[in-house]
């Protein structure tokens, strides 16, 4: 049996996480933080794709601390998303990120019937984005008048599929799962390169379904290797295996994991892209590291014991480095937990700052290591 030693830094990391989350919750409240700029989390409108991460983090801390005020804030965030679910006409594929960490989290922890209904409604909207000809979930709506992006699919969407798997299980209707599986087949065919690196964006002809190209998106270039996209694939494929038991998903997850781990620098926290020319600044993206670490811990649970150590040790090493070298535990002028995330380098947005999804996945990784916790994607 693989020895599951509890890392000696884990209790201290969890205590620091709870203490800081309680402190910053006094300022953030039921808001929707994205990036911490100058030490203060900038709050976004509730329709922004990151809206689930703060309430998701609050639920993770609530589950173990039973801190009622954190639960209330998470519930308020969920209610604040209702106008987005009911009245907003530009909901995109990020429905999974948004309602898995709010409504599914609430339903799993409190059995709220209203939360269950919201999550099923979100799943319906997500399923409706499926393009039958191309067998992909459409990513976005037009960003500007006249733009046509009906043929765009992105690697991030792997993490939205758990909403569909959940909806199938919950409703007993396999159609959601069929759609998720069809999308994931497309991911295997068009997004994952033979070496385990991934494309961010794949473009299809929305009418014929033919693949028409690959785009760089948030990576440096179409043929580069955006690290957060690689983490979305690693974790998303592992979750696809968790929900379906289909071998090809875990084989691909392992291939992506091996690529990811082979690219890590000395401190085990990735650069924002694994393939950038020397003149481009190699900022870290701690959020990619946190997401990959949590995914690696799940992957370790899914493989045989002779393999598990490789993934678990890597996940633990990454979380420890994030905790010791990137954590802002004793800086009262910084609201973020984990420094040095990179949101969107090509657009020059939120570079080298704490990001709420980095904080979320770091805390999720700790929750996994503490064992027996509810993980909302599963
Ligand atoms: N597009 C979501 C992300 O920045 O990873």
Automatic annotation (TrEMBL):
Highest taxon of source: Bacteria
Name of the featured protein: Glycosyl hydrolase
Family of the protein in this entry: Belongs to the glycosyl hydrolase 88 family.
InterPro entries membership: 6-hairpin_glycosidase_sf, 6hp_glycosidase-like_sf, UG_Glycosaminoglycan_Hydrolase
Keyword annotations: Hydrolase
Keyword Ribosomal protein recorded: no
The organism of origin for this protein: Paenibacillus enshidis
GO molecular function: hydrolase activity
